[in-house]
User: Fold this.
Amino acid sequence: MIPFVARHLICPLHERLIGRASFRALRELQRSQWDAPADLRNLQRAKLAALIEHAERHVPFYSRRLRDAGVDAALVDHFDALQRLPLLDKAQITAAENDIVWHDAPGGLHAHNTGGSTGEPLRFYVDRRRQAYDQAARARTHRWFGADVGDREAYLWGSPLEVRGTDRVKQLRDRLFNHRLFDAFNMAPEKMDAYLDALARFKPACLFGYPSSLALLAEHARSKGKVWSTAGLRAVFVTGEVCYPHDRQVIENYFGVPVADGYGSREGGFIAHQCPLGEMHIMAENVIVEIINAGRCVPAGETGEIVITHLDAYAMPFIRYRTGDRGRLKPGRCACGRGLPLMDVVQGRATDLLHLPDGTVKHALSVIYPLRAMPGIKRFRVTQHEDFAVTVDVVRDDRAERITPDAVADRLRPVFGADVGLRVDLVDRIAPAGSGKYRYVVSHAAGGARHIAEEGMKIDA
Ligand SMILES: [Zn+2]
Assistant:
């Protein structure tokens, strides 16, 4: 598909058909990014007021929270009101069931599932308004690097839902939108050769994926003496895990374009993204970021847990939602001129690569997804030992006696093959790592050591 046609005909038509307003949102965001910080703060204040009033009126869970906190949504300063509300976590959302959903959201409710960084599953709903703004925010950051909606984009990604693209609708949509998907779960050497050939033919304007997977692909290409000679590539967009400096360097050296790091999550939305000067800008029109330490909101410069309020999530409001990630707000403005505030993500989703004895490398998500898909698993941790053997600790939820160690092992066997020792233990709890995060995959096998060492250095950064 010619990028012009994809951008000006197919994409807007698709948006109109499904009732999204993402192009209007993109025009809005293109303008507001240059606003002064004070003006952006006022925009946040107005959107927060609307969100809180909506939540009070239409979402019983929040009506109760506001009442319990003694907040009258019609009278207060809404930034003050926000600080008086308790933090929200996954368990509360799950327990609230229908009470935390606005069933009359225009365009309907769209269900998603995630495990986030804790390995604890979450089912949540998004509405058209939120979809439009999340998409527009993403498109805006692509424009920062000279890439536009409809340009060719290759994904090195691993969600089984997206990989299961054998269905024709998805394939057709990918072609219309100039997207091409490569499976980050399957990074065997001959697969990577095939990916590189396909990428050379596809000639993407952007690459998108996990930094660890893209670095692996770049390292493999370099070791084979392959030269990246595709003109037109603008940037490599990475997300989903910590982008280690080593991986960034490997990717930039091989592909010869900047790496742009994005921070967000499925449930929390598109939260922050690097600009061409390397600063991480908060998508302030759509999200309020607070940093919480020891129960209180800390000023710029101090590190704590990243807590977000999504200003355009109306179907299922996320108000003071705990991401489990650590970071800090940065004072001052970026020299790029955008008024969007700055932050650092000190430690996001840290995943390790798993290694098979034959040299194949598997992304951590290749075990995370199948485990998340098993009902009855509350938490898990996968540990790979130096001899490649794997131990899986599983905490069951109280509804599911039928989850057995054998069932879990059977589910994971295709990932590791017959030669890797696989043990599953049922446990009562899994202690967080020293950083406070529940690292769900830890590998001590060949190559994994580098990632662990670098993460160790970053924890207190
Ligand atoms: Zn900037």
Remarks:
- Residues 275, 277, 279, 281, 334, 336, 338 surround zinc ion (CB under 6 Å).
